[in-house]
Specification:
The protein is α+β, with helices and mostly antiparallel strands. It is built from nine helices and twelve strands.
Length: 472
C-alpha cells in the first residue's frame, strides 16, 4: 500500500476500523438480544407454570385424584401415574429456575410448614417435593412428552413439581419463541444492508475530510512546482488554520526568502564583477591594438576579445535573471535574421543560406531578438561542415525561426543539456576553442522571456534549432 496516496490509505484504514467495530458490535448485539429474548420467554413460561401451580395448591384443581383441565392452553399437568420411576427422578433432577419462586401446598410430612423458595427437589415419588422451575433444555426420558407438546426450537418449557394432598404432580408451561425469532430476523434485516451502507458513508466522509485537510498541501505543491529561478519572489499559500500544514507553509516561505536573498546576492556579484571587468578589458584591448604587430600580440588580442564576449554574456544573463524590463516594440524579425546571417564570422568558408519570409513581425526587444538570432547562427557556424541554413516562416500567426547546420548534430540524450549554462558537448577540444557554453542558454532565456521557446528538432543530418515567437 506504500504506492497509494495518503488520502486513499486514510480512507481504507478508517473504513476497516469501523467495519471491524461494527462487526463485533453486531455479533454482540445479536447474541445479547437473543439471550434476552429467550430468557424473557423462559420467564413467561415459568410465570404460567407458577400461576397454574397456585391454582392447584388452592384445592379446586384436584377432583377425585385427577387434575382438571387448566385454563391456559400453553400449560399441561402431568400426574405421577403417567411417569415411570426413572422419568420422575429425571424430571425432579433437572436444574432449578430460581427466578420465579412459588408457594407449595401443604407438606405431606405432617409438619404443616409451607415453602416460599424455589429449590431442586430430589424427593421420591409419593413424597412432598419442593417447588422448582425447570429450564426447557431438558434432556432425558422425561422430556419426551414435552418435545411432542412443545417442539425444540419453537417453544421454551418450564416444569414445576407441585405437592398436593394426593401426591406430587408436574406442571409444564410453554412459551413460544416465534416473537424472538421475528425480532432477530428484523434486526438482521436492518444490519445486513445497514452495515455496508454505513461503511460507504464512513468511506465517503473520510475521503472528503482527508481531501479537504490535504487541499492546502496540494496548493503548496502546485505553487512550489511552478517556482523557478526567475520568479523566486513567489510564495506558497499559507492556510488560515494554525495547524502543522500552516507551519509547513510558513517554513517553506522562509526558506524561499533565504534562497531568493542568496540568488540575488549571486546575481549582483556576477553583474558587478562583469561590469568592473569591462573597463580594464577595454583598456587592455586598446593597448594590444596599438602595440607593434606580432604573433604574441595577436594571440593576446584574441583572448581579450573572448573575455570581453564572456563578460558581455554574463551581464546579459544577469539582466535576464533580474527580469529588468526591456524596451518592447514591433520588430521585423526577417530583417534582423538577414542582418545577422550576413555578418562576418571567424569561419568565412562556411556558407550561410537564407530562406526568410517577408513581413514576419513580432513584438519584443530588438536588441535581445538580435542577440537570439546571432547566438543561434554563431553556434551553427561553429559546428557546421560547410553550410548553415537560416529559415524564417509564419506558423499560425507566430514566427518560426529554424537554424540548421550540416555538422555532427546533437545526440538525443543531450538535446536538453545543451541549453544549460556553461555546457559544452565537445569537451575533447581545448577550452580556448569554440564558445563559452552560454550562447544557447541566453537564446532560450530570450525566447522564453518573449513568450516563446527554443528546442532542438530531430530529423536529418546535422543539428536544427527551432525558436518559436508569438505574434504581436
Amino acid at each position: 500500500m506504500s504506492h497509494l496516496s495518503v488520502r486513499v490509505r486514510a480512507t481504507l484504514a478508517a473504513t476497516a476500523i469501523v467495519a471491524v467495530a461494527l462487526g463485533v458490535a453486531a455479533v454482540v448485539l445479536v447474541g445479547v438480544l437473543k439471550g434476552s429474548l429467550v430468557d424473557s420467554a423462559s420467564a413467561e413460561a415459568a410465570r404460567r407454570a407458577y400461576g397454574t401451580a397456585g391454582m392447584i395448591t388452592a384445592g379446586p384443581g384436584l377432583i377425585a385424584g385427577r387434575v382438571a383441565e387448566p385454563l391456559d392452553p400453553d400449560v399441561q399437568v402431568i400426574e405421577a401415574a403417567e411417569l415411570s420411576e426413572a422419568e420422575w427422578r429425571a424430571a425432579l433432577a433437572q436444574p432449578a429456575q430460581p427466578a420465579l419462586p412459588i408457594t407449595s401446598g401443604q407438606d405431606t410430612s405432617g409438619t404443616g410448614a409451607t415453602r416460599s423458595d424455589t429449590t431442586r427437589s430430589t424427593a421420591p415419588r409419593g413424597e412432598t417435593a419442593r417447588s422448582a422451575a425447570v429450564r426447557p433444555d431438558t434432556i432425558g426420558p422425561a422430556a419426551v412428552r414435552a418435545e411432542r407438546w412443545a417442539p425444540a426450537g419453537s417453544f421454551t418449557v418450564a416444569t414445576m413439581p407441585v405437592a398436593t394432598v394426593d401426591g406430587v404432580v408436574l406442571v409444564q408451561a410453554r412459551a413460544s419463541l416465534e416473537p424472538a425469532g421475528a425480532a432477530l430476523q428484523t434486526l438482521q434485516g436492518l444490519l445486513i444492508p445497514g452495515i455496508p451502507g454505513l461503511l460507504l458513508l464512513v468511506a465517503a466522509l473520510t475521503w472528503l475530510a482527508v481531501g479537504r485537510a490535504l487541499a492546502p498541501v496540494s496548493a503548496i505543491r502546485t505553487e512550489m512546482a511552478d517556482i523557478t529561478a526567475s520568479d523566486l519572489h513567489r510564495r506558497v499559500p499559507v492556510p488560515r488554520s494554525r495547524d502543522e500544514i500552516a507551519r509547513l507553509a510558513e517554513t517553506m516561505n522562509r526558506t524561499l526568502d533565504r534562497l531568493e536573498l542568496a540568488v540575488d546576492r549571486h546575481k549582483r556579484f556576477v553583474a558587478d564583477a562583469a561590469h568592473e571587468l569591462r573597463s580594464p578589458l577595454a583598456i587592455l584591448r586598446t593597448r594590444l591594438e596599438l602595440a607593434p604587430p606580432g604573433p604574441l600580440a595577436a594571440e593576446a588580442l584574441t583572448d581579450v576579445e573572448r573575455i570581453q564576449a564572456l563578460t558581455s554574456d554574463l551581464l546579459l544573463l544577469a539582466r535576464l535573471d533580474a527580469g529588468e524590463p526591456a524596451c518592447h516594440g514591433e520588430v521585423d524579425l526577417g530583417q534582423v535574421a538577414a542582418e545577422e546571417a550576413t555578418r562576418a564570422r571567424p569561419r568565412p568558408e562556411i556558407r550561410v543560406e537564407l530562406e526568410v519570409a517577408a513581413d514576419v513581425v513580432v513584438r519584443g526587444s530588438a536588441e535581445e531578438l538580435r542577440r537570439l538570432v546571432a547566438n543561434l547562427v554563431d553556434n551553427a557556424v561553429r559546428h557546421a561542415d560547410s553550410t548553415v541554413t537560416v529559415r524564417l516562416a509564419r506558423d499560425g500567426g507566430g514566427a518560426v525561426l529554424d537554424v540548421r547546420d550540416d555538422g555532427p548534430g546533437i545526440p538525443a540524450e543531450h538535446r536538453e543539456a545543451v541549453f544549460d549554462r556553461f555546457t559544452r558537448l565537445d569537451e575533447a577540444r581545448g577550452r580556448d576553442a569554440g564558445g563559452s557554453g552560454l550562447g544557447l542558454a541566453i537564446a532560450r532565456d530570450i525566447a522564453v522571456r518573449h513568450g516563446g521557446g527554443l528546442s532542438v528538432v530531430g530529423g536529418g543530418p546535422g543539428a536544427r534549432l527551432r525558436a518559436r515567437l508569438p505574434a504581436p
